[in-house]
Design a protein that fits this description.
Elements (H helix, E strand, L loop, with lengths): L3 H9 L14 E3 L4 H10 L14 E3 L12 H38 L6 H13 L10 H10 L5 H12 L5 H6 L6 E2 L18 E2 L5 H14 L4 H12 L6 H4 L11 H13 L15
Parallel strand pairs: 1-2
Antiparallel strand pairs: 3-4
Length: 289
């Protein structure tokens, strides 16, 4: 069962209308050293090349503070991927539950039936969270627009972007602010002022209470920001064709994520290929840690 402490942790980074992960147990790891974290992974028999029994539902408060000091590239990458994969799956699990609500509502409306008050409340909450503005939230058009946005991001793409944006978890912002994806905030004093920020600029690098908060914010960003509408369209086309989501394909819709444009997209696709990240495309969470 979710502990009170875990509920507080999730609530601190949650504005989701859907219930959080419904597995029997989630373990919060507060270790700050890679050796201690690896011991925890061993305790749960968690190995990247043996995920037949699923990924344990683990949440890290922070990435290991000595991650930048690990000289072995392969070891650093393994710790990085093992740290993030459970949280990406947990966050996607939340989104999938939201999507299941919408698919149910879509069927009800298609039968010319009315939604209940509770269902309308859920729908209204999702519209607010995913920034769909309409006076007719119960309409097929509104639900179709929400379905464009309320969908998962393939684990291989999230892992590749996290690696690229955080320098494999060694960047200042990932270590100090739990910010893996370089997200900004325009509320002065709430984030970290980046070195070399232009005079007169007010943006700061967003600070998160935990790593899970950064991952959830990143997923919401891709699902709502106008700059990533191409990614959402590619994803919707895959859904319509009933083919599995492909992280390398969806990366084509992220050319606005970086000023490097198409070169950035190629970097992500190369990261996915070189690190065999497609092997994580179909993995699932264990029922418990």
């Amino acid at each position: 069962m979710l502990t009170g402490m875990l509920c507080l942790l999730l609530a601190s980074c949650s504005d989701s209308a859907a219930p959080t992960y419904q597995g029997s147990d989630i373990k919060i790891l507060r270790t700050t050293l890679s050796a201690d974290l690896e011991e925890e992974f061993l305790r749960y028999n968690y190995q990247l090349d043996n995920l037949d029994h699923g990924v344990p539902p683990l949440i890290l408060q922070t990435l290991p503070k000595d991650l930048p000091n690990i000289n072995s590239t392969s070891k650093r990458k393994a710790i990085f991927f093992k740290s993030l994969l459970p949280m990406i799956l947990l966050a996607n699990n939340e989104i999938q539950r939201e999507r299941e609500h919408l698919l149910k509502f879509q069927k009800i409306i298609a039968r010319d039936q009315s939604l209940t008050e509770d269902q309308l409340h859920i729908l209204s909450s999702l519209a607010k969270r995913y920034e769909v503005r309409t006076d007719k939230i119960w309409s097929s058009q509104a639900i179709n627009e929400l379905l464009l946005r309320v969908d998962i991001i393939p684990p291989e793409l999230a892992l590749a972007q996290a690696a690229n944006e955080s320098a494999w978890g060694t960047s200042r912002f990932s270590q100090v602010a739990n910010n893996l994806f370089g997200e900004w905030t325009f509320q002065p004093g709430t984030g970290i002022v980046p070195t070399g920020r232009p005079e007169g600029a007010t943006y700061e690098v967003k600070r998160f209470e935990n790593v899970y908060g950064s991952i959830r914010s990143y997923l919401r960003n891709l699902n709502t920001h106008f700059a990533y509408s191409e990614l959402r369209q590619i994803r919707a086309e895959s859904r319509a064709a009933r083919v599995p989501l492909d992280g390398a394909k969806l990366a084509e819709g992220l050319f606005r994520y970086s000023i490097r444009g198409e070169e950035y997209v190629k970097d992500l696709q190369s990261l996915i290929l070189r690190n065999r990240l497609h092997r994580f495309a179909k993995v699932n969470l264990r029922a418990s840690s």
